[in-house]
Amino acid sequence: SSDVCSSDLAPLITRVTVDKTGENDGEITVRWIPPLNPQFPLADYQYVLQRVNGSGFTDLTPKLDMTGSALSFVDDGLNTFSTQYSYRVMLYVDGNPNPVDSSSIASSVWLALTTSNKVINLNWRATVPWSNQVEGAAFKHLVYFGEQCATTLADLTSRPPLEIDVTTEGLKYSDTGLDSTKTYCYAVVTRGSYGNDDPLV
Predict the structure, then answer these.
(1) Residue 80's closest CA among 119, 114, 30?
(2) Which of 164, 73, 72 is nearest to 124 (CA)?
(3) How far apart are CA 73 and CA 51, in angstroms?
(4) Contact between residue 47 and residue 70 where contact means Cβ atoms under 8 Å apart
(5) Strand order of the sheet with strand 71-78?
(6) Which one, of 133, 134, 111, lies nearest residue 122 by Cα?
(7) Is the separation of the CB atoms in 109 and 125 below 8 Å?
(8) What's the pLDDT score for residue 169?
(9) What gap in Å lies between CA 63 and CA 6, rounded to an integer?
(10) CA-CA-CA-CA torsion for 15, 126, 201, 8, nearest 10 degrees?
(11) Which residue ranges in the chain fall short of pLDDT 70?
């Protein structure tokens, strides 16, 4: 995605992570931070996390009173095996029934695989309000690999993760020299930024 400027008055989503892959027990953690330039005391703010789908928005939480610098919620019971999910955070203040602002929409990363002779081609995408193609070693994406099926990143330990510079070739990688009789499993960790030196992982 391209660099964007976000309102200092809106909450910022910083992570949409698929913690577990499954057809009905998948889990995604969504993290966000309060407005960078709040108009009201942070203790007066409340947040409602919404999941976005083709028919609109679904509230996942009641109004949450959260005053930390990093806020999060785990969305579970999902089909993360075949579905990509998107989220936004609604911002309320001091019990007002109407939101005063909302974050931009951010999706989970979707990884697609295609195969040819002893080669697996990986392509991944995400619709996010930050840039996922940033120069620098700290912003390289990580490709994890396993020689057996896995549901979590911790299970992919067949080799150290590969660091991919996505500013030159894009969000893709080709794994070559594979054994066509084996099954392989992959996961990708993206790194992006809202325009500063701190990577969003």
Answers:
(1) 30
(2) 164
(3) 12
(4) no
(5) 12-20, 26-33, 71-78
(6) 111
(7) yes
(8) 87
(9) 23
(10) -50
(11) 1-7, 197-201
Give the C-alpha separation, 90 to 13, whole Å.
Answer: 11
Q: How far apart are the C-alpha atoms of 159 and 171, rounded to whole Å?
A: 20
Q: Which is nearest to 174 in space by CA: 92, 114, 132, 100?
A: 114
Alpha-carbon torsion angle 189, 192, 197, 201, nearest 10:
-30
Q: CA-to-CA distance for 180 and 178, rounded, in angstroms? A: 6
Which one-letter amino acid corresponds to residue 54?
G
State residue 201's pLDDT score: 59
E strands, the chain, where? 12-20, 26-33, 45-53, 56-59, 71-78, 86-93, 101-102, 106-107, 110-116, 119-125, 141-146, 162-164, 172-175, 185-189
Which residues, listed in sequence order, are joined to residue 131 by a DSSP beta bridge?
A: 193
Q: Is there a contact between 70 and 11 (Cβ–Cβ < 8 Å)?
A: no
Cβ proximity of 135 and 192 under 8 Å: no
Residue 21's pLDDT is what? Answer: 94
Q: Any idea what the Cα angle at residue 154 is, between residues 148 and 19, rounded to 5°?
A: 105
Tell me the C-alpha distance between 94 and 31, whole Å.
22
One-letter amino acid at 38 equals: P
